[in-house]
Amino acid sequence: MTNTKPPFWRDDRFWRITGQLIAVFLALAIVAMLWGNLNRNLQQLGIQFGFGFLNQQASFDIGETPIAYQPTDSYSRALWVGLINSLRIAILGIIFTTIIGVIAGIGRLSDNWLVRNIMAVYVEVFRNTPLLLQLLFWYFAVFLSFPKIDNKITLGGFVSLSQNGIETLWFNLSPEFAALLLGLTFYTGAFIAEIVRGGIGSVPKGQWEAARSLGLKPSSIMRLIILPQALRVIIPPLTSQYLNLTKNSSLAIAIGYPDIYFVASTTFNQTGKAVEVMLVLILTYLTLSLTISLIMNLFNRRVQIRER
Amino acid sequence: MRKSTLILGASLIFAIAACGGNTAQTTNTSNTSADRWDTVKSRGQIICGVSGEVPGFSFVGTDGKYSGIDVDVCRAVAAAVFDNPDAVEFRNLNAKERFTALQTGEVDILSRNTTWTLSRATSVGLEFAPVVFYDGQAIMVRKNSNIKSLTDLKDKAICVQTGTTTEQNLADQMRKRGITYKPVVFEDVNVTFATYAEGRCEAVTADRSALVSRRTTLPKPEDNVILDEVISSEPLAPAVAKGNGKWRDTLTWVVYSLIKAEELGINSQNVAQLATSNDPDVKRLLGTEGNLGEGLGLTNDFAAKAIKHVGNYGEIYDRNLGPKTALNLPRGQNQQWTKGGLLYSPPFR
Fold this sequence. Notes:
The structure holds 2 protein chains of 2 kinds.
Chain A: H1 12-45, H2 75-108, H3 113-127, H4 131-143, E1 153-155, E2 159-162, E3 165-168, E4 172-173, H5 175-201, H6 205-213, H7 218-248, H8 260-271, H9 274-303
Helix pairs in contact in A: 2-3, 2-5, 2-8, 3-5, 4-5, 5-7, 6-7, 7-9, 8-9
Chain B: H1 2-33, H2 36-43, E1 46-50, E2 53-54, E3 58-60, E4 66-67, H3 69-82, E5 88-92, H4 98-103, E6 109-110, H5 118-122, E7 126-128, E8 133-142, E9 157-161, H6 165-177, E10 182-186, H7 189-198, E11 203-207, H8 208-215, E12 224-226, E13 232-236, E14 239-241, H9 245-264, H10 271-274, H11 280-286, H12 292-296, H13 302-310, H14 313-321
Parallel strand pairs in B: 1-5, 1-6, 9-10, 9-11
Antiparallel strand pairs in B: 2-3, 3-4, 7-14, 8-11, 8-12, 8-13
Helix pairs in contact in B: 3-9, 3-13, 9-13
């Protein structure tokens, strides 16, 4: 009994722990090497690594400022303005794209031939063209072809469209903001439509038949029976699409909307601090994305149907 | 089975890390001791960062050939070092990546209509060579808009390209005058001017030379006018990365030699016969007397090679921005000091 204990290098647990320790050590060693290399090269060029530049004067103007901002404010204030602009797009974008995606997804399953095919064309066209092209199209072909402010088009007396954007009684939207919002909404909406369609398709046919035999209207069937069950399947990929929309909003720089990526770019170009600015950007997008994931995961847990 | 894959995996990672460590070591030693000059000499070719989208400064023609003042500066350096103006590889860089490309060593020279400022020379880690073009920022508006000065731009939209001194200068000047305006900022220079052409902005601002060159690409160039108001001074100079003193000296004195050559009346046609002239200044510049090239690690006739292959400053200017080109920019401040301009070379002695 006493000499049946195997030597330690034949013990599985030893290798498992050692293997993990080696992997962690190697990962840390690689990171340390890269970090040391970076520091050496920066010193060679006489550049200091540090975030002190955030307190320097920004000296550049930003086109859309939801909070008060002057060129005499610091870079960190400019980055806050950019972040709020990004949040505006992300939040409104997520709301609108969900609405459009769900409508398009349900529409593709409609019995009406026209509705079904229009939605199919929408999904195929918007899914299969690059987002940057779509944004440029919205900006140049739609919003910039509106007439100038002097001969603006008025709809219903309270909305007017011109090259300065969309003006209503309550708010003004610049053409850059509108083009980015609509471009992102319709692009992501096409993907969400397919996810919704797949989710609805995952509900067993028996549920439809049972609901119809109970005499429910089609809209009640969808609302009370099908969608609650489809949500289980829809929500995880839906979260991915929300994250895609948030990250794709960084294309704002192509059509002149000052989001966080744009402000960080200008900061980087004026201060030359490539690594620090990239770190700030990575942390920002990571925080945004993790927040969205967290909220969606809580929502997911609530709507999960527990099988009996 | 599990153990052996684990050992295999661990040793693979170790091997990769070791290789990474080796290259880090060698780059480190080459960075601290070798000047970029040695790297270029051993490569036999210069890698030159340009824009490629600014006619007159660096532009790729339909035949794939590069032309412009910035391009000619690099070719002059190649001629001086290798006696071959085509020993250059050009890389197109946009306004955002240009400094990183130089800092990381991806290009040897940044010759990309870059303004010489204090912060760029210090915290961005660039070392500038002499100014090759004295420019200034200006504003272009439509003729029928009746905008005559900056104050007329109150509450109007102005198109500008991101990441350049242009943004800051515009903000400074408007702040000085207390005028509010709306900047519409784009990453791509083509999108900037296209948006102005569509009418979204009442004005577009950039360096005067860039405005003149881009105006030729607008649908109706004659409908646009560049205001006389000067927003800032923009001395455009080529640059190398900090810590490469020898390489910077080479670039500096090749540029000065082109300026000095015009002052002394030497051009690509007469450089051969002027090598035997009686003027000691001419002889020293062209290398038939003295040994000025040795201090730079080049042959004594390095300036003669540059002038022969590319021409003196005046020839370079005329070829790219002169009266026979579409741009036709008057020399203005970019004239020799003997004629009232700002071009002044220290003596070749």
